[in-house]
Amino acid sequence: MNIKNYLGILKLTRLFKGFSDEELIHLFETHNYIISKYNKGTIIHFESEKCNCWDIILKGQVFIQKIDEKGNVLTITEFKVGDNIGGNLLFSKYPYYPMSVVAKSDTHILHIDKNLILQLCQISQDFLVEFLSCISDKTMILTSKIKSISMKSIRESIIEFLNYEYYTQKNKEIKLNMTKKELAERLGVQRTSLSRELNKMKKDGLIDYNAHSITICDFDIIRKS
Q: What's the CATH superfamily of 3-150?
């Protein structure tokens, strides 16, 4: 796969918007890069694997997941086309993935050599600023997730999810674009615990739900959240 086919995607990101097509082609032709295809469910990077490149998603979506010794899965976050992974690890003294990176769907990823990143930072201050911003954002995502898991009950986590989706979808019936298993992983709980709490909330008259949606029945949970 040739980088020329993905220049439009790269230039839609804040990182590369200041470069012309010719500049990007020249930079990539003179440095090492790989564009790899991963099928849905494939582990792109294993936990504790050394980070040797900076990844940009050109197609598809990926999960960042933590799997404990019992096999429980916690989905930290998801990344989509244009997002990048590994910038916060590549220049670290301990450049190893703390979690697994998994393809949520069929995915194409651009793996960029460390030397090319260094050159991009040197020739473009805008790129340098955006690169540092990306590193900071990744740190905040992890910090926010840890705080959310450690301080909230399952019900509080569900209500927070419903609150966000209600204002995003602007509808009391929240359409789920994920399975109950994926929702449990996103909230950092076991699927059985999620189902048990959803049943309790239904009995309390707060919600109703099926396999594809959760309907808010008591809007006090939105106002109070």
A: Jelly Rolls (2.60.120.10)
Per residue in 66-104, pLDDT tens?
876 667 777 888 899 999 999 989 998 999 998 899 999
Each residue's pLDDT tens digit, 114-145 = 999 999 999 999 999 999 998 888 777 777 66
Spelled out in words, what is the top-level CATH class assigned to the domain 152-224?
A: mainly alpha
d(CA 65, CA 185): 8
Q: Which of 92, 84, 81 is nearest to 131 (CA)?
A: 84
Q: What is the pLDDT of residue 146?
A: 64
Structure tokens at 146: 């840890």
Task: Spell out a b/e string for 123-161, using b for 16 or more CB atoms within 10 Å of the CB, else e.
Answer: ebeebeebbeebbeebeeebeebeeeeeeeebeebbbeb
In the prediction, which pLDDT does 225 show?
46
Contact 164, 214 (CB under 8 A): no
Q: Is the CB of residue 24 less than 8 Å from the CB of residue 16?
A: yes
The structural domains of the chain, with segments of one domain joined by +, span 3-150, 152-224
Virtual torsion, Cα 159, 164, 165, 168, nearest 10 deg: 160
- For residue 33, the cross-strand partners are 112
Three-class secondary structure of residue 52 per DSSP? coil
